[in-house]
């Protein structure tokens, strides 16, 4: 299947099975805003909880808070967002479509890299085992020409970003003959800076109301509470503060489903350390966060680090964790060494000391900060994309394919489905009893409509790891069938064991203990 088509299928599946709906759909939707349905809300909660457990519960020196979305407007001046939270915007004069200039260039570079990869794969297939990849990459004229092009443009691009040189960004677009991806036109406007923050008014009387912002990141809520948490929790450096919550960005081009939304959720942690120790802690958190991703079992080869081309003015190291979606590798999480920038700025703007007294060193300092920042919605999409499978079954019989969501059992929206084989002979009563027991521990679904095969398919499609089927034998010997989503294997087990068997399999304990 073409990868773009696979992505479309996943989006359609997410809607059909109650994971994600376009917001305000009956009014034709609202661009880049989405609602989570009955299964999506469960999955999102489970991902958020797994992050929280791994960050807050497992790390004795990390605590969690929940700060407000509205904050004092000075905060966004101090953090640099009012002046510099911009993206370079370019319009196409013919199509009237708006793009991010940096993304047009990045996509162009990616395309060139794609050509190299294709060329290499073609040669690898042709030469088979005798293929020497290194030599090919170092000698093939077409590969070398493309490599040279990439290096040249990339170096101009990085310099332009570093200097905020908007004219040069436009010139690169012109020189590379980059066309509007939709219309093919090369009739571009100038590049302008566009601030991504939404603003609104606080207060009931408009004239006296003051302009405030919807937070574009949750991090600042942590910084301004740094001393509150440190003092009330008697925290000693190094320590971290975590939180999850909504963030808002007026993205220029919002596309690719929940990858780039205007209202989204972040899961962030700021880790406060001694000045000079930040780069060692940066490595520490890079490693720890990658382990968290790998613990989901979606495939090690699907992840990579991508160091930032341009460091933000406040950072002295930054990397992204990227996941390979059907539309290519995309950032899911950023890990940044933010130096003492934010706390120092808040000290300056608020006039309040943001220092920590280090008993061991017998001195005060503004701590340095390592940030781990992951988008919950992108993580959700990672789980969807990593779990979706159109499976061909070589079984004889009616069904020869199924869509199965191989969501890790501990994240699955519904843990267990309780299914009486038929709607008569007292089976529903027995099934209800089992359901009433199980729902005290798990999110369960009871279903008695349709053939058992169709019910299994519906559960596969939402990723339910276990189905419990109650049949005529159940009333005779108190046993039920447990069916496993991934293998479709079935086993007969005593009713009394169902809870424990499911519990062991859907608990995140195993994954968490590997992270600990
Ligand atoms: P990008 O380069 O993709 O715009 P970013 O580098 O601006 O992202 P950060 O500011 O580092 O992103 O935000 C941290 C995380 O928040 C990102 O890794 C991503 O998972 C998530 N995120 C950022 N912007 C959005 C968005 N518009 N929609 C959904 N998630 C987002």
Q: Care to describe what's here?
A:
- The chain is an alpha+beta fold and 516 residues long.
- The chain has three domains: 3-73 and 196-384, Bira Bifunctional Protein, Domain 2 (BirA Bifunctional Protein, domain 2, 2-Layer Sandwich), CATH 3.30.930; 86-193, 2-Layer Sandwich (Herpes Virus-1); 395-515, Anticodon-binding domain (Rossmann fold).
- The strands form seven sheets. Strands 3-9-10-16-13-12-11 form a seven-stranded mixed beta sheet.
- β14 (356-358) and β15 form a beta hairpin.
- The model has no long low-confidence stretch (mean pLDDT 94).
- Bound molecules: adenosine-5'-triphosphate.
- Residues 217, 249, 251, 260-261, 264, 266, 331-334, 373-375, 377-378 line the site of adenosine-5'-triphosphate (ATP).
In CATH's first tier, which class of the largest domain applies? Alpha Beta
How many domains, as an integer? Answer: 3
Nearest-angstrom radius of gyration?
A: 26 Å
Q: Determine the mean pLDDT.
A: 94
The CATH topology of the largest domain is given as BirA Bifunctional Protein, domain 2
Number of strands: 23
- Structural class call reads alpha+beta
Give the strand content: 25-35%
Shape, per Cα inertia axes? globular
Looking at CATH, the homologous superfamily of the largest domain is: Bira Bifunctional Protein, Domain 2
In whole angstroms, the N-to-C terminal distance is 39 Å
Number of helical regions:
18
What's the CATH architecture name of the largest domain? 2-Layer Sandwich
Ligand list: adenosine-5'-triphosphate
Range of helix content: 25-40%
Reported for the largest beta sheet, the result is: 7 strands, mixed
């Amino acid at each position: 299947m073409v990868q773009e088509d696979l992505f479309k299928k996943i989006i359609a599946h997410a809607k059909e099975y109650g994971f994600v709906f376009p917001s305000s759909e009956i009014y034709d939707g609202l661009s880049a805003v989405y609602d989570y349905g009955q299964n999506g809300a469960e999955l999102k909660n489970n991902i958020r909880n797994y992050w929280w457990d791994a960050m807050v519960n497992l790390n004795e020196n990390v605590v969690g808070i929940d700060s407000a979305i509205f904050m004092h407007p000075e905060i966004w001046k101090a953090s640099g967002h009012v002046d510099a939270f911009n993206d370079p915007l370019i319009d196409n004069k013919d199509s009237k479509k708006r793009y991010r200039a940096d993304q047009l260039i990045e996509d162009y570079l990616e395309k060139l890299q794609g050509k190299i990869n294709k060329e290499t794969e073609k040669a690898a297939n042709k030469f088979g085992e005798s293929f020497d990849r290194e030599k090919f990459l170092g000698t093939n004229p077409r590969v070398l020409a493309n490599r040279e092009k990439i290096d040249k443009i990339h170096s101009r691009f990085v310099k332009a970003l570093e200097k905020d040189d908007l004219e040069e960004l436009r010139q690169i677009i012109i020189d590379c003959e980059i066309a509007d991806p939709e219309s093919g036109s090369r009739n571009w406007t100038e590049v302008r800076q566009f601030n991504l923050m939404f603003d609104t008014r606080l207060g009931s009387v408009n004239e006296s109301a003051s302009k405030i912002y919807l937070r574009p990141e949750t991090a600042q809520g942590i910084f301004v509470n740094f001393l509150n948490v440190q003092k009330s929790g008697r925290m000693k450096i190094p320590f971290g503060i975590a939180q999850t919550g909504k963030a808002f960005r007026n993205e220029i081009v919002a596309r690719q489903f929940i990858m780039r939304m205007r209202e989204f959720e972040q899961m962030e942690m700021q880790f406060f350390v001694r000045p000079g120790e930040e780069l060692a802690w940066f490595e520490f958190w890079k490693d720890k966060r990658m382990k968290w991703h790998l613990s989901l079992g979606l495939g090690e080869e699907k992840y990579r680090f991508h160091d930032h081309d341009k460091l933000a003015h406040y950072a002295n190291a930054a990397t992204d964790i990227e996941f390979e979606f059907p539309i290519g590798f995309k950032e899911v999480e950023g890990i940044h060494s933010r130096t003492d920038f934010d706390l120092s700025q808040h000290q300056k703007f608020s006039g309040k000391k943001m220092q920590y007294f280090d008993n061991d060193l017998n001195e005060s300092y503004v701590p340095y900060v390592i940030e781990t920042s992951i988008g919950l919605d992108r993580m959700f999409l990672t789980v969807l994309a990593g779990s979706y499978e159109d499976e061909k079954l070589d079984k004889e019989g009616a069904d020869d394919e199924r869509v199965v969501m191989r969501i890790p059992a501990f994240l699955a929206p519904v843990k267990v489905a309780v299914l009486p084989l038929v709607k008569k002979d007292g089976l529903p009563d027995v099934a209800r009893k089992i359901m009433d027991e199980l729902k005290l521990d798990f999110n369960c679904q009871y279903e008695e409509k349709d053939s058992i095969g169709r019910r299994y398919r519906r559960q596969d499609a939402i990723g339910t790891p276990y189905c419990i089927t109650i049949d005529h034998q159940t009333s005779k010997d108190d046993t039920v069938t447990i069916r496993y989503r991934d293998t479709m294997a079935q086993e007969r087990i005593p009713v009394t064991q169902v809870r424990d068997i499911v519990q062991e399999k859907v608990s995140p304990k195993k994954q968490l203990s590997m992270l600990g």
